[in-house]
Write a structure and sequence with these properties.
single chain, two-stranded antiparallel ribbon
Length: 202
Amino acid sequence: MQDYIKMSYESEKLAATLKAAREKKGLSQRALSAHAGVPQSHISKIESGAVNLTVSSLTAIANALDLELALVPRKAAPAVRTITRSVNDVPKATPEARKEITRLAKQLEHIQSLKIDSPVFENLQRQFREMRQFENLIRNTDTLRSIREALKAVENAGGVAALQEASKQMNSFRNALAHGIADEERTRLPRPAYRLDGDNDE
């Protein structure tokens, strides 16, 4: 028997929360579908409250949105809500950074439609999701534009080599953000990209 959460008032709030999280990450329903392995049509019905929300779908969508599901004791709920609000109050990404991230997400979505079977692309998608966890630290968007330009070459003669170049840049940028190095000088990557291996020589 399929497990599901009926579309009560509470589950409608849950669906609205999932939609807000998707939009905050700049993901289309189609892109979320690709990340979560849930049909886009089903995601649309979930967000509009037209279908029962299965626990398996909820888990897959939450994971794709970097959300954690947990059963919290009722007495601890106020503390959890306070912590959640404090996390939501952290500085937001700049408009320029959000714009570049959205463009990059669309570029990755387009490449996925080309059905390039390569572990490099899967790794790049993972790096992108991880990088977005630090998007509020991004002040310099040159690297994002550089990665996007590298991805444009995939359709031409670049292929897997272009994906590898983009992945190297994404990895270095993600690591810099993760270590709190968000100022322009420290996050700017040398060009051409193949010199990235020498970044640690400073």
